[in-house]
Amino acid sequence: MGVTDCHVHINPIWEMRPDAAQLLGYPKSAPSQFLKDPAAFLEYLDTSGVERAALINYVAPEVIGYTEKANDFVSEYVRTNPERLIAVGGLRPDHPDPEHEVGRLAEQLHLRAIKLHPPHQGFSPNAYADGELPGLRALYAACVRYELPVIFHTGTSVFPRARNRFADPMLIEDVAVDFPELTIVLAHGGRPIWMETAVFLTRRFPNVWLELSGIPPARLLEYFPTLTRLSEKVLFGTDWPGPGVKDIGANLEAFRALPIPATDQHRILEENPLKVFPRLGPT
User: Fold this and answer.
1) Strand 150-153 and strand 184-187: pairing?
2) 135 vs 20, 64, 92, CA distance in Å?
3) How many CB atoms lie under 10 A from the CB of residue 32?
4) In what order do the strands lie in the sheet containing 208-211?
5) In this structure, what DSSP letter does residue 270 have?
6) I need a surface site. Which of 92, 128, 134, 215 has the fewest CB within 10 A?
């Protein structure tokens, strides 16, 4: 068993909109040395003490700039070592044929999870309920069929054109109720406004996981004082190289320094990610 970073950004930054890239300080602060060299990134994971990493990509051309080409990018990238590099991609919530597209992403591109970003894609996760986006029902059902977890961005975004009214994790409650077999990951734990909501959903639903990326480890127990009681439902993630996350290894070291029992740390860092992102079987 080894540590899994459940939220890392290795993305096709050449697709980024200029204002989004400027906000992140790209390309100067981007991991440019790794974008076309997966082997070098694996060496970086080795020095960081991390065995596996979920590479989070998604489709949001209006806010970030990423198009469906991001799926092809991450699919190709992980071929170097698909056991250690977990391909995560996405699709638009208004895709005209989500069932077919999810199947293509799973069977042809071998993606391991779907990332949806409500504030960047401008939709409510439960918009199928009132008929606004009926295709979402087919999208979630297809993810159940292909055993793909859905990773939802929860919590605020400061990118231009992001709409934070869609960032409240409570909008995902309907999804958890209506699709009990769907694995749901609450990326960023609703930070910084809706942490209690994210904890509530994690405690209420067996299929919901709390993911910690983008939160300074030193403040985790301030944001989530009951974290140890939730340790069987929590996933470690860094959001590297996001704002304030300069190094995966340093982030992991800071997490290990928290006054969290070793058994709970083991669950969060190693055991739980294997339940959401199982090891690949023999080919």
Assistant:
1) parallel
2) 28, 23, 10
3) 12
4) 4-8, 52-56, 85-89, 113-116, 150-153, 184-187, 208-211, 234-235
5) I
6) 134
Q: In CATH, what number is assigned to the domain containing residue 208?
A: 3.20.20.140
* Dist. CA 80–CA 16, nearest whole Å: 24
Q: Which amino acid is at 260?
A: I
Does 281 reside within a domain?
A: no
The DSSP bridge partners found for residue 85 are 53
Domain containing 203 equals: 4-276
Per-residue model confidence as pLDDT tens digits over 80-108: 999 999 999 999 999 999 999 999 999 99
How far, in Å, CA of 66 to CA of 70, rounded? 6
- For the entire predicted model, the pTM comes to 0.97
Q: What is the pLDDT of residues 21-62, one digit of tens each?
A: 999 888 777 788 899 999 999 999 999 999 999 999 999 999
DSSP codes joined into one string, 102-116: HHHHHHTS---EEEE
Instruction: Quote the distance between the C-alpha of residue 209 and its chain's center.
Output: 11
Report the DSSP pairing between strands 52-56 and 85-89: parallel
